[in-house]
């Protein structure tokens, strides 16, 4: 009894220490974004701001219309991309998990092969711009990520193969259910834990994606929040370089160091705020999707 109590206290202490270690960088990021520029230059970064200042956020939200529009675009591509990604992943993974599928091993290897090799940046750019004409369109921020999720397909295939009893599918066949009915009303409800996990990874990848916008988007009205903040960061760096060259009038009015931190906070804060709600759904999915004997 005593040893079990010591073990529980030790485990809780380790987990609390890990939680603090994980939260510390983000708390330091927020603190730096709220610190006056000269205090950062003079004393460096600290967990508690030496001198509070909202200058960095004022600088960013002076362009609030651009930020709100970019948030809207990012929210749209995140929602649509996550839903389509889950749909495509399950529609490919479920047949691959069935032993009755012809050429099952070859198709599985074909999916696995995409994890090892790709056509490269230039062919991808030419295909999407010249063949599909996605240059400066919202779909260029969604489609490329949909076609490169081989890892998610293999992960979902393994879940279907090991966690969905074959007897359940066979009994549905006996009752006269079609493949589409089995997929929608049996397979997907049982796969909620895996769907929640892959959906979270897809959501994070779409929210944090900046690369597709960098190579496919020139129209500023289609910038996602990551591309817009990256552009703002480049502008700040440009002002800093000019200040080193003697053009200090404009650069001195911009809190360069704290703006960088504020940009990072704005980019990641909505995702962190949404995560507890998604986590609740994730736990619910674990409960609903459990197979009980």
Automatic annotation (TrEMBL):
Cellular compartment(s): Cell membrane
InterPro entries linked to this entry: MetI-like (IPR000515), MetI-like_sf (IPR035906)
Superkingdom of origin organism: Bacteria
Pfam families membership: BPD_transp_1
Keywords: Cell membrane, Membrane, Transmembrane, Transmembrane helix, Transport
Regions that span the bilayer: 12-34, 71-94, 106-126, 138-155, 186-207, 259-278
PANTHER family, A to Z: ABC TRANSPORTER PERMEASE PROTEIN MG189-RELATED-RELATED, POLYGALACTURONAN_RHAMNOGALACTURONAN TRANSPORT SYSTEM PERMEASE PROTEIN YTCP
Similarity section: Belongs to the binding-protein-dependent transport system permease family.
Protein name, UniProt field: Carbohydrate ABC transporter permease
Organism whose genome encodes this protein: Paenibacillus illinoisensis
